[in-house]
Amino acid sequence: MSRGLAIVGHGKMGRLIEQFAPEYGFDVRAKFSRADNLHVAAISRESLRGVDVAVEFTTPDAAPDNLRRLASLGINSVCGTTGWFEHLPAVKESVLAAGTALAYSANFSVGVNIFIQTVTLAASLFAKYPEYEAWGWEMHHSAKKDAPSGTLKKLAEEIRASGYERTLTLTANRAGSHPGTHEIGFDSGADTITLRHTARNREGFARGALQAARWAIGKRGVYEFREILGELG
Ligand SMILES: NC(=O)c1ccc[n+]([C@@H]2O[C@H](COP(=O)([O-])OP(=O)(O)OC[C@H]3O[C@@H](n4cnc5c(N)ncnc54)[C@H](OP(=O)(O)O)[C@@H]3O)[C@@H](O)[C@H]2O)c1
Question: Domain 110-198, what architecture?
Fold first, then answer.
């Protein structure tokens, strides 16, 4: 039996998610874009009839209100929008109060999440050797609104949490239609170590979000994608 999916944000990611949804057992029963969803007006009990879970890929200014609205209507959601995480504590409170679930991530690629774990391990090892200094760099298409990317900020946060406390400079480039490259490097007088993830297209993000959406049905609580990686099928 197929499950009902709502797509909040019918842009590049929303359209890809719609394309792959049937492969994950989903029937797309609602779609929202900015024009029809001013101040969350379109997200209602009526428009969400038959929806089991929503996937949200919009803009940083729209995501917090959309997520709170979905929670208040009892709908579990998956959010890939980046650049709004300063509002995460408030959104989390609403989701927990509503007894719904939210799975979020700045990056829904399985490969990137394993890359983050690899970088974290490397940083914890280099932390003990002061001759190694680190850098972080990312590049995306010119339409991306936030810089540095949520993924680069996440990498920096994990590097810090691993015990690496020396200077870490972050830089970002925006050009063309590139789907995303993230690089972390460690450099000493003797050598350079470069760890790099390059996305070929957006497919991995869409598939990861759909796996998370399938997982989120019937769950409660707020989870970052990497916390549920081991449970996805
Ligand atoms: N987590 C990940 O793995 C991942 C991967 C890729 C991208 N992202 C992030 O996901 C977000 C979307 O990326 P994208 O490439 O799909 O961007 P996009 O092509 O610009 O699409 C964004 C869509 O959101 C819609 N929108 C804006 N405000 C809305 C609202 N209030 N209600 C409903 N829809 C609204 C826009 O509608 P209109 O067309 O009507 O303006 C547009 O269609 C960005 O924050 C990006 O950084 C995350």
Answer: 2-Layer Sandwich (3.30)
Closest residue to atom 10 of ligand 1, CA basis: 81
Compute, in angstroms, the gap from residue 11 CA to the centroid of ligand 1: 5
**Beta strands across the sheet bearing 192-198:** 168-174, 133-140, 181-187, 192-198
CA distances from 212 to 8, 55, 188, 202 (A): 15, 9, 40, 16
Residue 20 scores a pLDDT above 70: yes
Active-site annotation holds for 140: yes
In the chain, domain spans: 3-108+203-231, 110-198
d(CA 143, CA 150) in angstroms, rounded, equals: 15
CATH superfamily of 3-108+203-231: NAD(P)-binding Rossmann-like Domain (3.40.50.720)
* pLDDT tens, residue by residue, 128-184: 999 999 999 999 999 998 999 999 999 999 999 999 999 999 999 999 999 999 999
The overall average pLDDT reported for the chain is: 96
**Is 10 designated active site?**
no
> Do residues 24 and 206 touch, judged by C-beta distance below 8 A?
no
pLDDT given for residue 230 in this prediction: 86
Ligand 1 centre from 63 Cα, in Å?
Answer: 9
